[in-house]
Structure formats: C-alpha cells, structure tokens
Amino acid sequence: MVQTSRRRPSKTSSNHVSWSATTLLITILVALFSLVHHVDASALTTTIQANERTCFYALVDKSGEKVGFYFAVQSGGSFDIDWTVTDPQDTIVIEGERERQGDYIFTAHLVGEYSFCFSNDMSSFSEKLVDFDIMVESEPRPIAPAKPTALNEQTSSLEESIYKLSGSISSIQRTQKYFRTRENRNVSTVRSTQWRIFMFSMSESIFMCGMSAFQVWVVQRFFSGPSRRRQV
User: Fold this and answer.
1) Which region, left, alpha or beta, applies to residue 149 given φ > 0 means left and ψ of -120 to 50 means alpha?
2) What is the distance between the alpha carbons of residues 25 and 11, in angstroms, rounded to a whole number?
3) CA-CA distance, 231 to 182, in Å (whole number)?
4) Sheet holding 39-48, edge to edge
5) Are the C-beta atoms of 35 and 156 separated by less than 8 Å?
C-alpha cells in the first residue's frame, strides 16, 4: 500500500514575500510624498484705475525658495501695464514697462515680504483689468544614492516620470492662461468696436436729422418772406 503525503507550503517563505511587497509599497509611498513640495499660490484679478499704483505682497519664509510671477492685462487701453517686483529691502528684483503679459521665475535670497506692484500712470482715463498669479515654492530634488539598487532604480524612474508629468501640467496651464488672455482681449476689442460703431451711428443719425431740420427751416424762410409786387 502506497501512502501519499502533501507538503504544506512554508509559512516562513510566504511571510517573507508579503513583507518584501509591503516594504516596496511603503518605500514607493514615501518617495511620492517626498516629491510633494509645499506651494503657496494666489490667483487674483484686479482692476487698476488710471494714474493708480497697486501692490500685492508674498511672504518668503526661507532663503533659496523659487518665486513665480505671472500677469496678463485682460482689458483696458492698449493692454499694457508697468510693473515692479522688489525684495524686503526695497531693492528692485525685476521690472517692466508697458508690457502686456509676462511669466517670470526667480530665486528669493532674502526672507521677508516681496512686493509685486502694478502702475497705470501711462493712462489718463482708461482702467486696466489684470489677471496675475504669485507662487512661492520649495522644490528640493532628491539626491541619488551612492550605491544604486533595484528598489532605488524603480524609485528613481518613478520620480523622473512624476517630474515629467509636473512639467507637462505646467505647460498646459501656461497654454490655458495664454488662450484665456487672448479670448479676454478679443472680447474687449469686440465690445469696444461695437460701442464705437453705436456712437458713430448715433452721431450720424443726429447729424442727418439736424441737416434735415436746417434744410426745412431754410426753405420755409425762403418762401415765407414778404412778397414784393410791382405797380405799373
């Protein structure tokens, strides 16, 4: 009589595989959370009256942080504005005159409040509608280990994919801002053209009515004068 026996799987090997998978998952999650950097951003839209200067402020709490500044004039005048960025010591970092839009990134070397000012001194009566973003971020890139392993290689490839995805998203956001600005400017131009056509049509109608009334008055004046008869 032949007896058969079944060998049960070892609990030690299965626990070892489960522990390795858990360690890999935890390492990947830690790498993902390490890539998430702190970002302080504000997207605002403001109206700047003629001969007015408006300033906004952003706090930088650590030296070496990246500061992003984007603006676009949506409507008003020739769609241009003067702007200035100064550091906590009132030193001009970057500035521009009569620019329609801009997208700048600079490194903050001082800790404190940075001012972002718009000036509409070039306009005598036209107000400007400005859309702008101010972003303060700290994005330290992790240093590769001296001895790469299989797990580190997987994490590095995952990090590179995340960085590429972040760059693609930033490019899409810039493209959306560009088309939004173009749309707002075109709408403003169309409304301005409609208003000018309406005013021209009203002026033309008033002028034609005035000319007609003047012609009627002249004709009536011509025929209503005293008649002169000659006696023979």
Assistant:
1) beta
2) 21
3) 82
4) 39-48, 128-137, 65-75, 101-108
5) no
Q: Is the pTM above the cut of 0.85?
A: no
On whether the CB atoms of residues 39 and 137 are closer than 8 A, the answer is yes
Question: 184 vs 25, 74, 104, 111, 127, CA distance in Å?
Answer: 47, 5, 21, 36, 15
Burial readout 4-32 (b: 16 or more C-beta within 10 A, e: otherwise): eeeeeeeeeeeeeeeeeeeeeeeeeeebe
**CA separation for the pair 131, 70 (Å, rounded):** 8
Contact 129, 75 (CB under 8 A): yes
Residue 184 burial (CB count, 10 A) = 17
CB 110 within 8 A of CB 89: yes
Cα separation, 127 vs 76, whole angstroms: 6
Q: What is the pLDDT along the chain (232 residues), one digit of tens a residue?
A: 334 344 444 444 444 445 554 555 555 544 444 444 444 444 688 999 999 999 999 999 988 898 989 998 988 888 889 999 999 999 999 999 999 888 898 999 999 999 999 999 888 888 898 989 898 886 555 555 555 555 566 667 777 778 778 778 877 877 887 788 778 778 878 888 888 899 999 999 999 999 999 888 888 888 876 655 555 4
Listed in sequence order, the DSSP H helices in the chain are: 11-35, 150-223
